[in-house]
Amino acid sequence: MKSIARIIVKLSGWNVEGRFGPELRNCIIIVSPHTSQWDFIFGVLARTIYGIKAKYLIKNSFFKPGIAWFFHLTGGIAVDRSKKNELTDRLKAMLSRGEELKIAFTPEGTRTRVDRWRTGFYWTAIDTGLPIVAHYIDYKTKTVGQFDPFTPTGNWEEDKKHFEKLYANVTACHPKDFNKEF
């Protein structure tokens, strides 16, 4: 599968940069910008090239008969955003059992422009003690890549400046839909 993903990426004119070493056995992954359905495709291709089995959160409304199998197969975890869930407790239980845990969040939460990022990824990292590995999908350079792992301090107002700086020069598929101020 890794070879097929590399061929698809190369034929599309894109690059995947970065790697997941053993030091990143467990981490929170964020992927941004998220302004196009193509972001999902490039994200899955990058994950395959990295050779990781990261799961991702997706609205439960996508899990419809006839297509739900696809999201389960690709690592999707259905989330009902209208109510509080026990996601952090489930992740902590996985970690305590010694399971490898890589879970991807799209902090924008939708492909349309948002006023601010959802911070669930951040508080999940705080609660689990995991580093955050920020990924980008840059349509200007046709690159999917990652930034250095970041250990959050618990002060979102200060730490969000770190993420704003990381994504300042990243170009979304639909730039008007990507709010670079979190």
Number of strands: 7
Along the chain, the helix and strand elements come as HEEHEHEHEHEEH
Helix-and-strand structural type:
alpha/beta
> How many domains would you count in the coordinates?
1
**Proportion of residues in extended strands:** 15-25%
Our count of helices gives 6
CATH class category name: Alpha Beta
The N- and C-terminal alpha carbons lie at a distance of 36 Å
What is the residue-mean pLDDT, rounded to a whole number?
Answer: 89
Given as residue ranges, the uncertain stretches (5+ residues, pLDDT < 50) are: none
Named CATH topology = Rossmann fold
Q: Identify the strand order in the major beta sheet.
A: 1-7-6-2-5-3-4
Give the biggest beta sheet.
7 strands, mixed
Describe it.
- The mean pLDDT is 89.
- This protein is α/β, with parallel strands linked by helices.
- Helix 1 (2-11) crosses helix 2.
- The chain contains 6 helices and 7 strands.
Which short descriptors sum up this protein?
Rossmann fold; 33% helix; alpha/beta; 182 residues; 6 helices; 18% strand
